[in-house]
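In response to a reviewer's request, we include the raw inputs and outputs for one of the modeled complexes. The two entities were modeled together in a single run.
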Amino acid sequence: MDDFLAARLQMAFSLGFHIVFACIGMVMPFFMSLAHFYWLKTKNVVYRDVTKAWSKGVAIFFATGAVSGTVLSFELGLLWPKFMEHAGPIFGMPFSLEGTAFFIEAIALGFYLYGWNRINPWFHWATGVVVGISGLLSGILVVAANAWMNSPAGFDYIDGQYLNIDPIKAMFNDAWFSQALHMTVAAFVSTGFAVAGVHALMILRGRNVAFHSKAFKIAAVFGTIAACLQPISGDISAKDVAKRQPAKLAAMEAHFHTERNAPLIIGGIPDTAGKKVDYAIKIPGLLSFMATGDFNGEVKGLDSVPKEDQPPIGVTHYAFQVMVGLGMAMVGLALLYFIALWKKKQWLNSNWLLKLFVIATPMGFIALEAGWTVTEVGRQPWIIHGIMRTADAVTPMPGIAYSFYLFTGVYISLSVIVSLLLYRQITMVGKLYDSSTEVPKS
Amino acid sequence: MIYVVIIFLWTAILLYILLGGADFGAGIIELFTSKGNKDRTRKTMYDAIGPIWEANHMWLIIAIVILFVGFPKIYTTVSVYLHIPLVCMLLGIIARGTAFVFRNYDAVEDDMQKVYTPIFVYSSLITPFFLGIIAASAVSGRIDLLANDFLSAYVFSWLNWFSIAVGIFTVSICGFLATIFIIGQTDNESDRKHFTRKARRTIFIVMGCGALVFFAAYLEQIPLFNWIFGDTPGLIAIIAASISLVIMFFILERDKPIMLRLLAGFQVSMILFAATYSHFPDIVMLKNGENLSLLTHQGQTKTIDSLAYALLIGSIFILPALFYLIYIFQKRGALPSDH
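The model returned the following structure tokens for the whole complex.
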């Protein structure tokens, strides 16, 4: 394997792994705090049990997210030294602030996990909320740094020199808001659906139904509301990408030719040599409308950028289709759930709705990874859009392939262990957390 | 403002060595504890580090962010030429962080614990060992920007007796910090006696490893003796550390845990001060005699200023919260069992 490809794959794997843990680590504290709030308000012990069970999950995901994040802060230099040499001082601001947010999160989590019966109950509850808020802030800041790579700002690039650096302008680059919004909502969708799906499965199996029903409802409400908001944030992102990175939008859509009244291409197999998409559904004018707000608006195609500046079309296009398809499926399920909540209460007790949630368990995370692939692969061949090529940023050290194999092995084994751990936590809810089934201790 | 950033960098490194080090030490001590005492060591250690262990490791992130934002050339040079020990350290960090959580949160005590525990203790040993190697390699002048073969560019930049000795010394410091820390964490007389004995033994080990570092420096022709004893502030720091070590020996038997911790912290800070002072502002020495300096290789003014403000504002939030966390959970006695 050549070193450049190995470095890209290692970075992709590390981020793909981290993103799952980071998202759960920043969203689950909100579920946990809500359950905790109900417990403090209603004194219904089921809520306390759910809170404690979820807090274990938060601890496991936070720790895994924290170490994989630490690794990433080194990998930036280990794999992309030329990039960091120039980008570090420019886009470092969000990272310096993220250090604080992350630190606060770790401190608050210490209070939260060990604070039961030890500190004032409402102070204890508040530390849980702080875990969530600081986690969310960390996420937004890191995404702002990534947005800078798509939309470089806060410096003048003159004769290969990076001059007049302004870190604040770099942080508030054009892409930060749309990307941070889309990512944050995605974190709620994917975590909400994943957690809801797991609890739905346990309800279907008839285990600790009271416990799992309360847990399911909190996660499902968060996940479904977020799922319905996501298309709006997706629309903001698409318009933004159309303006800033036409090549990325063109690759997402496999849109080869610049044209007015451009069709929205759904599915299909892009044929890069023939510059067409086979077997696709085409809705005339819709892409123009989505990108520009006008059915007759001009959408730049791949032909508007030189071949060497085009991102890989296949991967970007397929990943985008997967993301949108799964997103829409989750919106559909969300709508069914809302109907059930307001109009058809009997659906809530029916197995088919729960079964649909079980099927939807991984959808959010698959969509999340696909979306991440779209934004990263769609930015290629650039590491800093329009300024520095990814190939020019890679480390001079040979043998990165071995490092890639090593880290891949580590991440795969970690995923297996975490899954096993969660499986055991979930199947042992009756013994560990649900006090209604527990034999009273002495 | 550059000095604000440098002070933060130094302090973050120091706190990582002290707090993270004590944390690594907990695993190292567990490794070197006889079978019969393993459980009580583990229990006392876990109660002690549980609530704050995540926070202890944040200092490394702060230090690395300061480096890549404020001193990108230094960060990238180290990343390229010390790639291999950095990867080894990272593997240690991954293994340790996850094994610690897994073994404390896995639902049942069974065979899986037999998997987590060795991973935890060995990675606790490996991580500070490679940290020491990286720190020593940065100053030992073996990084060769002109090297054109793999071994001399990426292996001999860090593989030498001096770096290895510093790695071992770092491990011993971690063990030392952990034993001193844990004395204050015990809740009965027999445990206290047990860990006091351990602490005394560890102090001798640290001194032995320190001597090893000087010997290795002599073998590798690194003028360590000059660095440390060559200028007055360094010399004063070492003398102060030695005096405090003598005091520590005298009060080791008495029940003065806070005093012991302060002394241990003081000694380690003095060692770090002596080790960094003579080079300042250089922090990476290259083979061609050119050094990477915190003053000449800093980022542009606006970057440094905003970094300094971010750190100052951050510390307003972090420090009080951290002290309160430590205060709440450092009262003696075991934690309630249901957390």
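As requested, we also summarize the result in words. The first strand of chain A starts at residue 156 and ends at 158. Residues 438-442 of chain A have pLDDT under 50 and may be disordered.
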